């Protein structure tokens, strides 16, 4: 038998729904929205494989007001993912030194978030230009 | 320290890599992808009315580059979510770990495999 009996601080079972942990939970669960979008594409690909009839039913669903509403909701959660992803970035990447000074975390977050917004906007404009 | 000690290697870095790749891909292009394929495309807003027609979608899925985009987006988005959901459920002590792994990593692995097979079946 082990002599070591470390003290483990008791913690409520529902700690994850209380602040300050709630923001952590919300950030992690934004991964569900990212997965749901992968699921939408997967469903589209599956219906495409099944044939025109199946694919057109999928497309009709995407055109429905319910789908548009759900997708705007999905968009909002994914934007939350984008914002929190770049808030975390300075903590997960190596220190960035420019001119002998460490670049502040807030600066990295700001630049990366702007770059992400720019790349999304660019993809939309590029798609519109190619498809025109 | 120079003696060869058998190191117990962890498989976790592979999951972190897939999680990070999916997280970065969705952070850079996620909002645009949702808008294009689920909102603007189906309604023909700012895009041609037949942008997402069966013929166009089939041509995209038959193009090698289109296949790569579909496989990357679908599988990495699932791996990203799998890592986050697994770790959160683990922290919540939501169930036995093998069950949680199967419900997250297992689903992501299955979706990756089926997507790969669907892209092959759709042809070139």
Short key terms for the protein model shown above:
heterodimer; A: 132 residues; mainly alpha; 3 helical TM bundles of succinate and fumarate reductases; two-stranded antiparallel sheet; 2 strands; flat; B: 124 residues; 4 helices; 77% helix; elongated
Q: What do these coordinates show?
A:
The complex is a heterodimer of chains A (132) and B (124). Chain A has 132 residues and is mainly alpha-helical. Chain A has one domain (15-131): Up-down Bundle (3 helical TM bundles of succinate and fumarate reductases). Chain A contains 4 helices and 2 strands, in the order H-H-H-E-E-H. Chain A has a two-stranded antiparallel ribbon. In chain B, helix 1 (12-43) crosses helix 3, helix 2 (54-62) packs across helix 3 (64-91) and helix 3 (64-91) packs antiparallel against helix 4. At the A-B interface, helix 1, helix 2, helix 3 and helix 4 of A face helix 1, helix 2, helix 3 and helix 4 of B.
Radius of gyration of chain A: 22 Å
Biggest beta sheet summary of chain B: none
How many individual domains of chain B? 1
At the fold tier of CATH, the topology name of chain A is: 3 helical TM bundles of succinate and fumarate reductases
End-to-end CA span of chain A:
73 Å
Based on secondary structure, the structural category of chain B is mainly alpha
Task: Please write out the topology.
The complex is a heterodimer of chains A (132) and B (124).
Chain A: H1 21-50, H2 52-63, H3 65-92, E1 97-98, E2 101-102, H4 105-131
Antiparallel strand pairs in A: 1-2
Chain B: H1 12-43, H2 54-62, H3 64-91, H4 97-122
Helix pairs in contact in B: 1-3, 2-3, 3-4
Give the gist of this structure.
By secondary structure, chain A is mainly alpha-helical. Helix content of chain A is 73%, strand content 3%. Chain A has one domain (15-131): Fumarate reductase/succinate dehydrogenase, transmembrane subunit (3 helical TM bundles of succinate and fumarate reductases).
